[in-house]
Design brief:
This protein has about 475 residues and is mainly α. Helix content is about 60%, strand content about 5%. The protein has 18 helices and eight strands. The strands form four sheets. It has a two-stranded antiparallel ribbon. Strand 5 (about 225), helix 8 (about 240-255) and strand 6 (about 260) form a beta-alpha-beta unit. It is elongated, with a radius of gyration of 30 Å. The termini are far apart.
């Protein structure tokens, strides 16, 4: 028996391995887009399978798809979702044709598995066809963007949950470090006294904003153009099908999806994905800032700031014994940079659409889903392996504060700016502390000085005179 079957299309024929569920269109895509990079994100494939199920149900209810074929398609999709057929979805993530190769790959795999369930051989498309049956009433141009919205919504929910947990961990550190007095810095220079907990409180609030933005942006993805077919006009799809397929996809996914008010717009314009990516970029910016701060605060441990301790995760050098690097914080920073780079790709791809379709949808899909995947994973690791294990080096933090000129600012209201500046200058030249010089020059009484330098007073001073 031959190891191959012959499939034909309008361009000719190709040999397809007998054990392959994909067909000739997938084979051509493998040949045309042999980039050797990455296959299409499996979450997008799974979302397309959900769309195929909804379409099969709607076409069966309309009465244009035979019940036996519809059930075979539904069974095939169900099996593909539950079992590992990943090696059958082989098109490269970056492909020409606005995602047509991916849609065809799914159509062929579903069709050939459905054929087996009908007791037929792979490739016997006269009994169940990838396009005539599996792709009935559809176009790549309504299937692909609908599936991308579905896949993105599922991932957005996971990311929002991870950000909520990170926020909670940072708030716990805010409370834990609420009594740790330290030096605040602006432009990396000594500035004012503060509590270490206040720094972590600021981080928690930044993450809180990101969590809320990302949680809410799901709403922007709920309008789908399924039923719009090629350009959003709905050609080759009946009005009854369009309403039924929307109901079906809502039921299958459990998501609050709605038929687009203007499918032509939803088909050709990709700005919603730019908006979603923009919120991911905002989160990435904050996460870079937080991870960089943690690395700086933990630097040293003896030759740097060393005011906090990050968990030791692995040896940091092949030549320097005892060196431990802040690898988890570095990972968080790099992932965030990748998200920002992906946002640039999404922006360029979305702006590159022309007339009734955007040919660069595969780049948008790959970049957006990758950003959601890596950011979700990185936030989880960052929280578990870095943030939750942070401890404070109280003595080092206090030492930096006492040896700085930051405390002089607390004296301005009592001795005036000019005299305070003179004390600061003398402290820098003599190496003496601000407190020592105030006592030496008898600028304030001991009781008044103690009151001014109370940690609660210098970190939450309120407004003088009120």
């Amino acid at each position: 028996m031959s190891k191959f079957r012959i499939e034909k299309d309008l361009l000719g024929e190709r040999q397809i391995p007998n054990d392959a569920y994909y067909g000739i269109q997938t084979k051509r895509a493998i040949e045309n887009f042999a980039l050797g990079t990455k296959h299409v994100n499996m979450s997008l494939i799974q979302a397309i399978l959900l769309v195929k199920m909804a379409c099969a149900k709607a076409n069966m209810e309309v009465g244009i798809l035979e019940e036996s074929k519809a059930k075979a398609i539904l069974d095939a999709c169900d099996e593909l979702l539950k079992k590992n057929y990943d090696n059958q979805f082989v098109t490269d993530a970056l492909q020409g044709g606005a995602g047509t190769s991916t849609n065809m790959n799914v159509n062929e795999v579903v069709a050939n598995l459905a054929l087996e369930k009908l007791g037929r051989q792979k490739g016997e498309y006269e009994f169940l066809h990838p396009l005539n049956d599996v792709n009935m009433s559809q176009s790549t141009n309504d299937v692909y963007p609908t599936a991308l919205r579905i896949a993105a919504i599922y991932k957005i929910r996971k990311l929002a949950d991870e950000l909520a947990e990170l926020q909670e961990s940072l708030q716990e550190k805010e409370e834990e470090f609420s009594g740790v007095l330290k030096l605040g810095r602006t432009q990396l220079m000594d500035a004012l006294p503060m509590m270490l907990g206040q720094e972590f409180g600021a981080y928690a609030r930044a993450v809180s904003r990101d969590r809320w933005r990302i949680y809410k942006v799901e709403e922007r993805l709920r309008q789908i153009n399924l039923g719009g077919t090629a350009i959003g006009t709905g050609m080759n799809a009946s009005q009854k099908y369009i309403y039924l397929v929307t109901d079906a996809i809502q039921s299958i996914t459990g998501l609050g999806l709605a038929r687009s008010e203007y499918p032509i717009d939803t088909t050709q314009n990709m700005d919603v994905f730019v908006e979603v990516s923009g919120f991911l970029k905002s989160a990435a910016v904050n996460l870079i800032k937080i991870s960089n701060d943690l690395r700086l605060l933990a630097s040293g441990p003896r030759g740097g700031l060393g005011e906090i301790n990050l968990p030791d995760m692995q040896a940091g050098s092949t030549i320097m014994p005892g060196k431990v690097n802040p690898v988890i914080a570095e990972m968080m920073g790099m992932v965030s940079m990748k998200v920002i780079a992906n946002d640039t790709a999404i922006t360029m791809a979305a702006s590159g659409g022309q007339l009734e379709l955007n040919a660069f949808a595969p780049l948008i899909a790959e970049s957006l889903l990758e950003s959601l995947d890596v950011l979700t994973g990185a936030v989880s690791i960052f929280r578990e392996k870095c943030v939750e294990g942070i401890t404070a080096n109280k003595e080092r933090a206090l030492e930096h504060l006492e040896n700085s000129t930051a405390l002089v600012t607390a004296l301005v209201h009592h001795i005036g700016y000019d005299r305070a500046a003179e004390i600061a200058k003398e402290a820098l030249q003599s190496g003496k502390t601000i407190v020592a010089l105030v006592r030496e020059h008898s600028l304030l009484g001991e009781e008044e000085l103690t009151g001014i330098l109370n940690p609660n007073q210098i970190t939450n001073p309120g407004i003088p005179g009120r």
